[in-house]
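Hey Z.,

So I finally got round to the beta-D-glucopyranose thing we talked about over coffee. Here's the setup:
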Amino acid sequence: MTPASAPSSALAGLRWSAATSALQIEGSRSADGGGRSIWDDYLAVPGAIRDGSTAEPACDSYRRPEDDAELAAGLGLDRYRFSIPWARVQPDGAGVGNRAALDHYSRVVDLLLDRGVTPFPTLFHWEMPSAVEAEGGWLSRDTAERFGDYAAIVAERLGDRVAHWYTLNEPAMTTLQGYAVGALAPGKQLLFGALPTAHHQLLAHARAAAALRSHGAAAVGLVNNHTWVLPLHDTDEDRRAAGVYDLLHNRLFSEPLLDGSYPDLEALGLPPLPVAEGDLAAIHGSIDFYGLNFYNPTTVAAATGGPIPFDIVPTPGAPVTGFGPEWPIMPSTLRDLLIDLRDRHPQLPPVIIGENGASFPEPDRAARIEDTDRIAYLAGHVSAVAEAIEAGVPVEEYTVWSLLDNWEWADGYTQRFGLVHVDFETGERTPKASYDWYRDLIAESRAMSTSVARS
Ligand code: BGC
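And the result:
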């Protein structure tokens, strides 16, 4: 689909969403007794954040939840994906829930429901309470149980109105970037010593899913980040390196959920995961849908040395986003990935695209941002989703990252992903051209669903 063309009829019936996460938009971090998280600790490390910024006030959303709910409703979204930070609810990572914080999220839920938008919260978008990290964080099995307790506290308060939940956002990024190489909090550089965090996160998801269901949840899942891995050259060495990367980024996190087993790590000379009896059964039975975030393919070559057997290299010939060669743009790889996932897992549950979007260099202030690059990126990926649906992949929902320009983790305020421009000094929100494009796409696909239903 080019931006001007009519949407494919395969999109009729698809649900539409947009996403944000708490640290990236909220500000007011210590308001209402909010506790310290690993991101407060990471921010204090000199040089950790590219522009030296903090996440204060970001979009000031903690004080302006009505504004965000209005923008979500103005798009005509079916659902809005936002996150609830563990360290606000349990400032010390244990014990009863912090009432003021729970009141706040209860209000966010009501603001959305009042405007006809279904709230779809994520319980962990990378903000581990520092107190839990101090006791091992995701390296400790006990964290899975603590996460289950936290999920129960949130569900107890919101479960009367919230039926759809994501537990974890992108456990692969936490393992690879957070614990293996240190590019995200908690900034550890354990290389393959990070692998136990993969299992403990999946176990935490299973514990949380059980708690949410016991409070009446209708649909629970987590959201994995997937990439389509391309070998740089058609050689055995590069294909092998691509296979290792595919295993670590994608299969390590998808196969236990979808097949009930881990890929063979020992065959690659890697240590076994700390799996206890019953863990895999709990993980395998734990999802009602498969959440998948997609941004870009990854090109991989055999390593020229060092402890890691692959190098991530630029994708030849591909245009790039504001991140440069790290983020090549190839929408067809989303289609290829979805079809491959269905081929590998014929019993694939409904798929939800939990994030897709791009940053591009944009002015800090402008009356109106004509973000044609973003519209082309999104239109290309929506077309890829339509093609996958036509090929029989059960995609039910598509989510744009992000509703708002926001604070992009270690990249600070240097990357703008929003459908809405945010002035980080005044908090003023100004919809970009992509906001209007997405609103129109949603309206057109709804009109198609109505005519399909009538015919
Ligand atoms: C994360 C978001 C992030 C986006 C763009 C995803 O991996 O879930 O929090 O802002 O990518 O980098």
